[in-house]
Amino acid sequence: MPKQPPVIALLTDFGARDHYVGVMKGVLLSICPDVRIIDICHEVAPQSIAEAAYLLWASYAYLPVGTIVLVVVDPGVGTQRDIVLARTKRNVFIAPDNGVLDYVLWQEKPLEVIALNYRSSLVEKMIQRKRSTTFHGRDVFAPLAAHIANGASLRQFGRKTPRGNVAEPFITKRDSGVEPKILHVDHFGNIITNIMQPQNGSPSFIRGIALGRKVIDRWIKTYAEAPLETPCLIVGSSGLIEIVVNKNSAASMLLSSHKLSLKLIA
Amino acid sequence: MPKQPPVIALLTDFGARDHYVGVMKGVLLSICPDVRIIDICHEVAPQSIAEAAYLLWASYAYLPVGTIVLVVVDPGVGTQRDIVLARTKRNVFIAPDNGVLDYVLWQEKPLEVIALNYRSSLVEKMIQRKRSTTFHGRDVFAPLAAHIANGASLRQFGRKTPRGNVAEPFITKRDSGVEPKILHVDHFGNIITNIMQPQNGSPSFIRGIALGRKVIDRWIKTYAEAPLETPCLIVGSSGLIEIVVNKNSAASMLLSSHKLSLKLIA
Amino acid sequence: MPKQPPVIALLTDFGARDHYVGVMKGVLLSICPDVRIIDICHEVAPQSIAEAAYLLWASYAYLPVGTIVLVVVDPGVGTQRDIVLARTKRNVFIAPDNGVLDYVLWQEKPLEVIALNYRSSLVEKMIQRKRSTTFHGRDVFAPLAAHIANGASLRQFGRKTPRGNVAEPFITKRDSGVEPKILHVDHFGNIITNIMQPQNGSPSFIRGIALGRKVIDRWIKTYAEAPLETPCLIVGSSGLIEIVVNKNSAASMLLSSHKLSLKLIA
Questions:
Q1: C223 partner at 20 to 30 Å CA-CA among A230, C161, C162, C173?
Q2: What is the mean pLDDT of residues A45-51?
């Protein structure tokens, strides 16, 4: 059987209006012509590290084993912020060291984490020497990912850096100490919280959720069983509790403000 | 000549804000690493079966012969709704059995239609055993398509199911009995109707169209020949009559409401 | 080493709501099954030739050597407008002859430019005989690109056509005679001008920019160093001066109207 081509997955806040994602793909294919590219998402809200961390966590386990995952949500682009390369059992993750990998590295213990050494001559050779200060996706991240796809070992790119444990991001029991919050509003207007229920059914530890003054405590298992116009709770496809409305956008109905407080109802 | 890699085409209402499409591609490439993926469209209006049926019909004939077409517009996700696998002369279509294949199966007589048997042990083995109730694109549809791309025969997945004839969806003559309607508004604001003219030129059977109280009866052959600010009729690229405005959006100019009635003018 | 598969890059104003881009890819893969496709961008403002010219110029040098670049921003679709095929040292560009290639052909002297001869029997054979008047992306451009990817020589498609020099599109010195203007507003709201500074640092020839009545003369090297709420100037990733606001959209803050005049401040 011939060797499978390498896979690189992309997660950015670059949107679709520009050439930014296309140029990154041009760089990837220039360096590694047989790479397969998967777009996880490019519509992360600009500079929203928390949203990117959620989308990455919800996706990575479904990518082919060995996929190199490149996350470019990078408010500090061009500054001295670190870039990290984290190897886990099934992936390599490349990202600015700003917290965007937190949920994944909480879920998957990394085997090693390397901080990129910009000054090493190898790195200088591999990335754009005359790099911009505003588009490291093109000048730093894409070349790194493509060279790793070509087989370069992570160790060449910098020093191992110790990682403390990442704080638990999800609420899995009462009095967990984790603040309830909204992680993401999806295309259908479903409101995705950080309250987790790995098994199907309503979590034993809460009866409902209060969003501002609105109490939501009707649990459903499929969208279709929800009465119309009625906000309900469902265990979403990643095990997190979502507030949803059948054939409508829960966000449009309920999120007059993103600042609305979220509370567990026991 | 080496065997061509299989092609899977995707049509969904998943949008671009989330990881949903990326995760489906991850599953496809995990199971069938050499598959080529074509995105037909992911911006079908949420749960709009009619719009998806139109977009699919307008696209499928231009996909490579043998393309497996996966349609996930699925308001009934997680319920007992059927999933069908339809084989035609040049394609396999996989979709929830909710009408989304109607236009294609009116155009192309299916050679066989299989209703997925969730309970067969083979299906259990191929799709996600612990499947979610909200994301069958990831847990059911993508694995099915990828296994078929790998060569699995449709018969393994369920029982043949008889199909009645699909009602003619287009108006091709006066007094056809088909209600005139708007199928889609495209990115340029062109309003695409279900009135068909396979040959170039104005249809012999109508003189114009009334949209609400507005009569449109100026026929053009290219956008550029239309006078500015003037709604015109053109035979679109799939043979359907479109209401268009040169360098402007006909929808913004005319569609104060999507409920506007459409009438043929003889 | 096996031959690398051909690469085709796409730049259109087709947007994401429709099947238009997907159908073009279907045609490309039908004719050239091993082609790799890169989407540069499909969100060019409808019929905006100038924006497409900018995005193309900012992208092409990062595509793999040999990439065939297909630009379909084509207000004259279906009319007698020319279609050109331009070969440069590293690319083939295919586009309607409406100025969309101007910036690239200013930057890269073309080795030859061919005007498509629709009437040649070879062209008739390769493109759709019964072509629409509204979707040449599908019926003309995609087949052309795919046949060229398969190895067809440009000369077969038409006659060599002489090209005058393209006027310098960028301002690189004081009194250059080029009018300052806004080329593009990107996803982050950065306002990209046609004032060029190839080297890092503030251009020696201007002190700042006036946008309407607002004077902007604070220069930064990274987004993060900009004070909040303060419009600043930065040399962008293609060497053009951009007006930016840290963690905010400069366009939302400043562009009350796209008609605002832009002036150099010496």
A1: C173
A2: 95
